[in-house]
Structure formats: structure tokens, C-alpha cells
Amino acid sequence: MGSVFYRLGRLDLKILVCSSEVFPYAKIGGLADVAGALPLALERQGFDVSIALPRYKCVDESKFKLKKISDTVSYAALGKGIKVYFIVNDAYFNREGLYGDKFGDHKDNLDRFSFYCRETLNLIKETDFKPDIIHCNDWQTGLIPVYLKSNLKNDVFYKDIRTVLTIHNLAYQGIFAKEEFTKLSLDESLFGAEGLEFYDKINLLKGGIVFSDVVNTVSSTYAKEILTEEFGCGLNGSLSAKKENIFGILNGLDYEIWDPEKDKFIFKNYSLKTIEDKYINKRKFQEELGLETSKQPLFGMVSRLAQQKGLDLIDEGIEEICKNSAQVVILGTGEKRYHEMLENIAKKYPNKISVHLKFDESLAHKIYAASDVFLMPSHYEPCGLGQMISFKYGTLPLAFKTGGLADTVSSDNGFIFDIYNKDMFLDAFHKAVSLYEDKCKWSNLVKRALGYNFSWDESARKYTDLYKKCLSR
Ligand code: ADP
Does the structure show a pLDDT above 80 at 5? Predict the structure, then answer.
């Protein structure tokens, strides 16, 4: 143990981040942002970081100057000296869609991601890059800890490598038919309750949870919630079995992208010192949307339109919201039933609600800047970026007390309700509308929100502590 801390003191900790998505190479959701931003922040703190991801069709070889190392590995550079390894297999990865296409999930996802895990482990041996920590993310990397603790456990090269598994959303587990187990080249004893078996199927995330040294999720509250039946998605038992090794670290926010002082998409830049310019954004945005330029509070929402995001509460409460002294703008795409519901309400209250059913980066920035309140009534939320972005834009979040929302939103900086139903949601809405009348109190909350710092450097420091804990176990 002493030698580990001696090495940490000299900042020569070596970390390999494994993720099936990494910004800017391949992105579907927040996982890519984490896997792109965390390595850069760790590098700024002096650590030796590498990344491994599959080489998908969407990875632009010439833009990122990929160099071929072997038939199965290409390489690019990120930041000052981060090595990014791309695991190549054209049959598996050179196709549309990271995980699936318009017909659904790719049928060979088990073959694809088990190949990625095995090749990543081969690669570090072949290049003699022995990380102290392999930082795995989500089910696609779940087999890495499994192979390290089984097939590779007697190989001296791999012996001291420790694994951290970050769960970004427990609802996605990588579940496959048991008949595919033979493809994994694992001893059949591992297909059992103490291994990868889950209701007679293979569960790759479960494998990762059972065999990694440390598990973390993306907020402290979500780390506790996943131990419960309500939020545990069937894995609360496996998680509870190692609960002393389960931690929560909030994701950071990329302030290069989200900063009203230099945001290129908004009408007028502003900061804490020029906060009155936020209201120029509101007025111009109301004009652009054809909403009355009234002094009513503007409620914004930018979200996937899914039940997880509280769209059932929006559905139940939107009529009452529209009948009140408030305006609403919603940007999102997702489930058809919510598209229809929002289209209908926008037809009924055209002067009160403006609905945009698409993905639109520029409009999202305008909503964060122009709104007074950001609606985020998610039923569960591992971390959540929307509330952190809205703080930075002086927009007060209205949220359900869950996961990362519980860790960031309170009555000191927004509006939070703690029972998930329409009445409590609308109660929080009415509190926001009435507080908005009190300009002095409102402005104090806005100023507080604008002062928060959810930078990646802060999160990376916490990850460093987690790596240290992992090495000392
Ligand atoms: P999740 O990753 O679960 O969807 P988060 O709150 O962590 O939720 O992150 C969502 C991110 O995606 C936010 O930055 C939000 O602004 C953005 N976003 C969601 N929907 C849209 C959309 N339709 N157009 C533009 N940006 C969107």
C-alpha cells in the first residue's frame, strides 16, 4: 500500500478509460461527454491517461488523424498527451448505429462488445501499457473486470490492475440469451447467481458490478437509490452485496460550451455582473416564439421526451400550467405519445406554450438563457445536466427530489418536490409563480445559482480520490 501512495504522490498514476462512447469521436448521450471530459481533466491534474473505444463508422479518420497500429487497433491523440485507442473490427463496428439502427438493437451486440473488451485487454499487454486503474463505464465494458478476475487472474501482467465501474444509468444492462454464453470463453460456473446470470439470461452490467473492485454512479443520491428495489432495476441485490464499495460522484459541466458570458447562440451575453441582460434574452426570445412579451415567468424545458424525464407529470399538469400566469417553451424529442400530447396543448394554448419537437442545440441554449425556471421533474435522474446548465444561466430549476437533482437542487436555488405526483409538481409550480412576484428574493436565488461551480476539475479530483481508495483495497 505504501508504494501505491508513494507513486500517487509523484502523480504517476496510470488510468485507462474504457467507454463505448467518447466525445468528440462517437456520441449518443451523456456517457460520451463524461468519457471525453474526464480524461482531459485528469490529464490537467498530471495523470497519465489513455482511452479505448470501438472504431465505429462515424469516427472521422481524417479529421482525428487516426493512425493504424495493427489490424485491430488504430490510434489518435487527445489533449496534451492522451492516447486514444480505437478497437477495429469492420464486421462489428463499421456500420450505422453504435448500438442499433431503426430496426432495433444490433443482434450481435454481445459479440461486438465482448470483442471490444477482450481486444482492449490484449492491447494493453501488447503495448506494455499497464494501467493502475481501468475505469470502465456501463454494460458495454462490464466484461473487462470479469476477464481480469477469471481468465487472466494468473497472468502477472494483469495481476495488480484494479477496476472502477461507473454506472451512468442502471436501466441499461446489456442482457442476452444464455445460449450466447459460450461465446464469452468464460468458465460455465460464471453463469450463476454469483456471476453473470440474471433471470436465466446473461447480464453484462451485473458481471461488471460483481467483479469490479469499486462501483460508482454519477451522484451520491443515485448511489443510494440503486440499492433499493424501487430504483435498483433488479440489480439492487448484487449492488447491496458490495455496498461499502459503491460511491457517487457528480458529473461535471463543460463551461467552454455552457457559459452565458461567451455563448454564441444567445441574443445577448451576460454574467452575474450584467444579469439584467438575461432579460433581453427573454424578451427577444418571446418575440421570436410569438409569445406575448409579458412579465410572466417563462418556464423552459429541454429534454428527451420520456417517462423517466417526468413527461407523465407534464401531461397531467400542463393544462393547469397554461391556465396560469406563466409561459412555457418545450424542446425535445422522444416518445410519440408525448409528441402528440404537446402538439395538442400547443394548438389549444398558442399564446402560452411554444413546442419544438426536434433536437436543436442552438434553441436549447436560447431556452436556458431566456427562461426564468427550468422544468426537470424527472422520475429518476442518475445525475442530470439540465439543472447544472440552468444554474449557470441564472435559471432556477424545478425538479423532483431524486438522484443528481436531489444533490444539486434545493429551495435555496430552485423549487423541489419530494412526492412524485401531479399535486406536488403543481405545488412547486405555484411556488415558483408566486416567488417570481418577489423580485428581491428571486434575484437572490438567481445570484446564488449563477455562483455555482460544477466544473470537471472538481469531479476529476473526486475520481482521483476514488482511484486511490480502489488501489488501497
Ligand atoms: P439525459 O442524458 O438523461 O438525456 P441530461 O440532463 O443528463 O439527460 O442531459 C441532457 C442533455 O441533452 C442536456 O444538455 C440537454 O440540454 C440536451 N438535450 C436534450 N434534448 C435536447 C434537444 N431536443 N435539443 C437539444 N438539446 C437537447
Answer: no
Q: Which atom of ligand 1 is nearest to the CA of 304?
A: 20
Instruction: Indicate whether 1 pLDDT > 70.
Output: no
Choose which residue among 217, 256, 304 to substitute to test ligand 1 binding: the one with the highest number of ligand atoms within 8 A of its C-beta: 304
Is any atom of ligand 1 closer than 6 Å to the C-beta of 387? no
272-453 has the same fold as 2-252+457-472: yes
pTM recorded for the entire structure:
0.92
State the distance from the centre of ligand 1 to the C-alpha of 304, rounded, in angstroms. 6
Enclosing H/E stretch for 210: helix 204-211
- What lies within 8 Å, CB to CB, of 383 at 6+ separation is 30, 168, 218, 219, 222, 250, 251, 403, 404
Higher local confidence (pLDDT), 114 or 28: 114
Ligand 1 neighbour 382 (Cβ under 6 A): no
**Cβ of 332 below 6 Å from ligand 1:** yes
Cβ of 386 closer than 6 Å to ligand 1, yes or no, is yes
How many angstroms is it from 359 CA to the middle of ligand 1?
Answer: 9
68-115 tens-digit pLDDT: 999 999 999 999 999 999 999 999 999 999 999 889 999 999 999 999
321 lines ligand 1 (CB under 6 A): no
- Assign residue 384 a region (left: φ > 0; alpha: ψ between -120 and 50; beta: otherwise): left
Cell numbers 402560452: residue:
352
Does ligand 1 lie within 6 Å of residue 384's CB atom?
A: yes
Ligand 1 geometric centre to CA of 148 (Å) = 35
Residue boundaries of the structural domains of the chain: 2-252+457-472, 272-453
**Domain 272-453 falls under CATH 3.30.1330.60:** no
Phi and psi torsions of 26, nearest 5°: -150, 120
Read off the pLDDT of residues 33-74 as tens digits, 9 standing for 90 and up. Answer: 899 999 999 999 999 999 999 999 999 999 999 999 999 999
User: Which CATH number fits the domain 2-252+457-472, given the four candidates 3.30.530.20, 1.10.287.990, 1.20.272.10, 3.40.50.2000?
Assistant: 3.40.50.2000
**Non-local CB neighbours of 385 within 8 Å, separated by 6+ positions:** 30, 33, 251, 253
> Tell me: the pLDDT tens digits for 294-307?
789 999 999 999 99
CA of 375 to the centre of ligand 1 (A): 12
Half-sphere exposure of 240 (CA within 13 A, CB side): 11
- The atom of ligand 1 lying closest to the CA of 356 is 23
pLDDT band at 320 (very low <50, low <70, confident <90, very high): very high
